[in-house]
Protein 1
Amino acid sequence: MRKFRSPNHWQQILAEQQKSGLTISAFCRQHNISTSGFYTQRQKQSVVTASTSAFVSTKVTKQTSTEVHRDVKQRIVLEPSAARLTLPAETPANYLITLLNGLSA
């Protein structure tokens, strides 16, 4: 015969199972609960918990924007051994790879 348990009672049962250290199967056997019913209620409780999460609803009250202007372009600087090599930031990657391979040879 099925036993009705309220959502609050299921919350207590689920918490008790976690604290018990028992497997779900062992806990359900000990408390005469079907494992399928336990998993069903655990799923329902997780949906309820997810819908009442800690996220807070917000509202934008003022729109602002920030523009960043870069007048000075960044350079790529390589200092192998005693030499210093400065390249424009727009230097293609494949050229850099070829250059680095040549320097390491």
Protein 2
Amino acid sequence: MTAYDLLFIIKSGLEEAAQKEILEKVKALIENGGGKVETVDVWGKRDLATPIEKNQQGYFVLVKYSGPGAINKELEARFKINENVLRYMITLSLSKPKVEAKA
């Protein structure tokens, strides 16, 4: 399985419950697609360098996961139709995923 980094920005005006719901949906989509979520790093609310759709701030989340490449297409399709996600970026991870030792 290939390791990926997913960074996405959610509208900062959303309630905390809605932000967590989006994150849980992303994690479930990765796991249902045969992947494994390694880490979730919530950066929180940050100022944007340039406004996106009249938003000055965004809620940043970094997810490191490993899985087949087909998950990426599904994630992109879901992000494109979700109007609460301002931007997203999926890249190959430079760090190798942790491999558990077989006994």
